Structures are given as C-alpha cells and as structure tokens.
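COMPLEX REQUEST
Ligand: calcium ion
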Amino acid sequence: MSPIRSLTPRLLALLLAGQAIALAVEGVVTVPPDPRQVPVAARMNYTRSSADLDGDGVAETLVIVTAITREKDPAKGTEVIVGVIAGKVPADKGALLWSRHLVAVTGRPAHGGDLQALDIDGDRRNELILTWDRSLTAEKVDRWGEIWVFDDLSHPRKVWEGQWELDTRKDPETPVGSREFMKRSIDYGATRKAAGRAIVFSKSYGMTAGRALNPPRLVAERVDVGLRTP
Ligand SMILES: [Ca+2]
Ligand SMILES: [Ca+2]
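STATUS: Structure written out below.
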C-alpha cells in the first residue's frame, strides 16, 4: 500500500497543510534529473534494486523515489522519478542511463510508485513493470501502469500502458451507481505461451456500476505487442 493511501483523510489534510507551511519556510524543492539526487528530507519513499534489463548478463540498478516537491498545487505536490543506472548496487557513481519523471511527462499527479523487473515472455531479458497512484484523496485508488522493454538501456520502448487498479467503492466524489473496483494482473503462463507477441492480463472486477461482484468477475485481456527485438 502506498504511504498516502494508508493515511486517513484527516492525516492527509494535515500533511498537505504541513507541506504548505514548509513551502512558506523553505520554498519549492527543485526536482533533480537523477532520482539519487533527491534530498533525503524530500524522499517519501526510495527503493533501489537490481536486474539485468538488456540481457547482456550484467545487472543494472533500478531506483524509484517519490519526492515531496512542496509545490502549492496539490497535483504537483509529489513527483515519482524512475531511474536506470549502469552497474549493480551499490551504484552511487554509476551513470544514469534513463530516467522518467511521471508528473512531468503525464501531467497528472503521481505518488506511491512501484517497479518490478520481470521476464514476462521468457526470453531471459527482464521487462520493467511500473505502476503508480494518480489519486489525490485517500478514499480513491487510481493506479496507472506502464510496461517497458529495454533493447537499448538508454532508449527503452514503452509497449503498454493502462489502468492498473481503480477503486472508487468509498469515493464520495463518485456517484454510487458509477463506483468500480478493478485490479489488473499479468497472466504469466498465457503471456509466456505468446512468446513475445502479446501480454495477457487478468482483470478482476469486484464492483461495476455500483454493484458488488462476489466472487469477483475475472476477464482475460490479450494485448498484441512486440516484446522482442525485431
Ligand atoms: Ca544489463
Ligand atoms: Ca523478457
């Protein structure tokens, strides 16, 4: 669970108020290009891992950080930065090969970023699965996802993006008859069988149009993509 989601609405309001006070005192934090350069005091969470993304037998370092920006606009109050760094942990001096600033590139709020490196098609090269929450309230979950393929470490290809999770069951802003709960996952068995030509998802619906589904309804979704280098 993302740190923001686990907060009660009142605590979230206090946190945002605290950010506003800090803004008056310290000013806006400039978000650096390299996630490793986000000041420790501005890191909401920071995760570092390693995986071989291009399949050359040498692991890269992966970093994801949610940075508190102290921007006045709550939609820009945090930035999620993903970075791929040459060499394995510890890689404080490794070159930054690729980075992505989610608020800057999507124009939407972002926090609670999560990344996983997994070989979803079985070609011994790891894909990057990146998800984050775009919701600004604790009552709603709006996770978006992207899947990246690294034929070239500095110029990866985004092969898919879409809704990863949507939960408006307790969202006062969503009319009762429009509330939804959907969680997506990858069907790894079916995706491996597609041998790099498709990703097969399983979407689990626990509520649609305000109606709870128990047990949840599972819907398979096949998306044709080219996971392997042409
Ligand atoms: Ca590598
Ligand atoms: Ca792969």
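REMARKS: The first strand starts at residue 43 and ends at 51. The chain has one domain: 9-224.
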